[in-house]
Amino acid sequence: MRKLIAIAVTCWIWSFATLARAQQIDVAFAGGSLASPGYGFNGGIFLPGEGGGAFVGFNGDVLFKPLFKGNLGVQAEVNWKGSQGLYGGQIPYRPLFYDFNAMWARRFSKHFGAEALAGIGGESIRFYTGNYNCDFYGNCSDYVSSNHFMGDFGGGIRFYPYGNFFVRPEVRLYVINNNMEFSSSHPVLYGVSIGYAFGGSK
Q1: How far apart are alpha carbons 193 and 166 in whole angstroms?
Q2: Residue 65: which pLDDT band, with cuts at 50, 70 and 90?
Q3: Is there a domain that residue 87 lies in?
Q4: Closest CA relative to residue 151, chosen from 100, 107, 84
Q5: Is the pLDDT of residue 29 over 50?
Q6: CA 167-173-176 angle, 5° bins
Q7: How many CB atoms lie within 10 A of CB 125?
Q8: Residue with more model confidence, 67 or 117
Q9: Which residues pair with residue 129 across a beta bridge?
Q10: Closest by alpha carbon to 146, among 179, 189, 98?
Q11: Strand, helix or coil at 149?
Q12: Where are the alpha helices (DSSP H) in the chain?
């Protein structure tokens, strides 16, 4: 969890550091759920589905108005399962997704906007074994991780109910390399972000 917080803080600091060159920075808190096919078999091995449960996360983006009229920018986000699931009904686990994207966004009116994005990132599946694993430097954890490279595609619709505060229904398609622990390599995260646009047009 400390690494997760560090990633989110780093993204926000990086975003604000570019304020002098960019005219709009958006930060948001996200909530949603993951959809994925149910269990399956691969080579006679039972594979559970990855979907279900509540996911939470943080995201932020920078839109470069001086260069691209505010329609293009970069975005970063991290989302994780809020509570541990049971892998195969036995082993507690928690998936975490992080990604870095190129982004197109446009505000069409005072109360409406839209965005689309695509990029790369990773999936980290943490299996909680109940045993502490320590490295050479004495850092210990009670889980082991399985990490996978992934691509992601997504978009959202922004509603601005008041000023620069926005509510954004959104969806993400993850394309995960060699996601052999689960029945599908293409889970879909859907949910809603609530955020604020710094420097956006009111």
Answers
A1: 8
A2: confident
A3: no
A4: 100
A5: yes
A6: 140
A7: 22
A8: 117
A9: none
A10: 179
A11: strand
A12: 2-17, 65-68
Q: Is residue 130 part of a domain?
A: no
The span from the CA of 126 to the CA of 87, in Å, is 10
Number of structural domains in the chain: 1
Collapsing DSSP states into helix, strand and coil, what is residue 40?
strand
Query: With contact defined as beta carbons under 8 Å apart, do 104 and 116 qualify?
Result: yes
Q: What is the end-to-end Cα distance of the chain in Å, rounded?
A: 36
Kindly state the average pLDDT of the residues 102-120.
Answer: 94
Is position 49 within any domain? yes
- The amino acid present at 4, given as its one-letter code, is L
Residue 48: name the closest of 2, 87, 76, 83 by CA: 87
Domain assignment present for 92: no
Backbone phi and psi for residue 14, each to the nearest 5 degrees, phi listed first: -60, -40
SS3 content of the chain, % helix, strand, coil (to 5): 10, 65, 25
Range scoring the smallest mean pLDDT among 39-53, 69-83, 111-125 = 39-53
Asked whether the whole model's pTM tops 0.85, one would answer: no
Cβ atoms 16, 8 nearer than 8 A? no
Is residue 121 within 8 Å of 100, Cβ to Cβ?
Answer: yes
Lowest-pLDDT range, 16-20, 100-104, 128-132?
Answer: 16-20
Domain range for 40: 2-82+98-118+150-198
CA 65 to chain centre: 24
> What CATH number is given to the structural domain containing 8?
2.40.160
Answer whether 149's CB lies under 8 Å from 129's CB. Answer: no
